[in-house]
Design a protein that fits this description.
By secondary structure, the chain is α/β, with parallel strands linked by helices. Helix content is 33%, strand content 21%. It has eight helices and twelve strands. The strands form three sheets. Strands 3-4-12-5-11 form a five-stranded mixed sheet, sandwiched between helices. It is globular and about 65 Å long.
Length: 289
């Protein structure tokens, strides 16, 4: 069906004017990741910002710092919000280094600079869990999700149907105009930042919401956080910058305090010292005690 080239707008109202009906679009989805009866749900919604936190950064809800330490947390930012965070941290022109840790296990896609996530149409407020997923798989899913979006947009005159929330927590379907350059995976967003001169080292540590990190996640974080420049900023994000973000911030705080000598490691019981050393060396992280 041909669509009017009017830009983005409420999909229910536009359906009357000849646009495809939202329920038909959702029902007919047949991508690798954007499958039948799934939505592209906006990550940000009214009220997601804790207004008591400072500084308040537009597009980067719940940005905060651990007092006295270079450890920061934030909700998943928009592209503009991400650049604001980088500027606040002093990472422009290759200055201060930023180690950024995305703690989300859900495939995320940026459309016109805003983050979106796949949700089931009958549960738009609930995360789809991918417990145990690793970084390579989730990033592969994001690349395939981008292809799904571009293929679908080609069917609807370069528009993609997305779902947002209004002030009353009602879901609203909206047609978003897109070109290929408007659709980015998180990895592409951070690569673009690095290309623009920001000193950022990005990685993904997929963790299920409200669950403890896997042992391998702890090992990865300790390895990354142990040998860092003294002034490096250690940043963590999940969707809202609360649960998984706080978990990452606590781990970073403990590692940083240990690295600074704020407390000593526990003394192993008899016979355990050699086992610990062998474990650390076998895992390639014998650089920390």
């Amino acid at each position: 069906m041909a669509l009017r080239k009017t830009g983005s707008g409420d999909a229910t109202e536009l359906a009357v004017a000849g646009w495809a009906k939202p329920e038909d679009v959702v029902r007919s989805r047949a991508g690798d990741v954007l499958i039948k009866n799934t939505l592209l749900k906006a990550d940000h919604f009214p009220g997601c910002q804790n207004t008591k936190l400072t500084p308040l950064l537009d597009g980067a809800p719940n940005f905060r710092q651990v007092d006295g330490l270079p450890v920061y947390g934030v909700a998943i930012p928009t592209v503009r919000g991400l650049r604001s965070v980088m500027d606040v941290l002093g990472a422009a022109q290759g200055q201060r280094g930023v180690l950024w840790h995305n703690m989300r296990e859900e495939p995320v896609l940026y459309i016109n600079g805003k983050p979106f996530v796949v949700r089931e149409s009958d549960q738009p407020f609930r995360n789809v869990e991918y417990t145990g997923i690793d970084r390579s798989r989730v990033e592969d899913m994001e690349a395939r999700l981008k292809r799904d979006v571009l293929r679908e947009a080609a069917r609807y005159d370069h528009h993609i149907l997305v779902t947002e929330e209004d002030d009353d927590m009602n879901v609203v379907d909206v047609w978003e105009p897109v070109t290929e350059s408007d659709v980015q995976t998180p990895m592409q967003v951070y690569q673009e930042l690095a290309g623009d001169g920001y000193n950022v080292d990005y990685t993904r540590v997929p963790i299920t919401d409200e669950k403890a990190p896997k042992d391998s996640d702890f090992e990865l974080l300790i390895q990354r956080l142990w040998n860092v420049p003294p002034d490096a900023a250690l940043v963590f994000n999940c969707q809202m910058g609360r649960g998984r973000t706080t978990t990452g911030m606590v781990i970073a705080t403990l590692v940083t305090l240990r690295r600074l000598g704020a407390f000593s490691p526990p003394t192993p019981l008899a016979g355990e010292q050699q086992q610990l050393q062998q474990h650390h060396m076998a895992n390639g992280n014998g650089v920390y005690p």
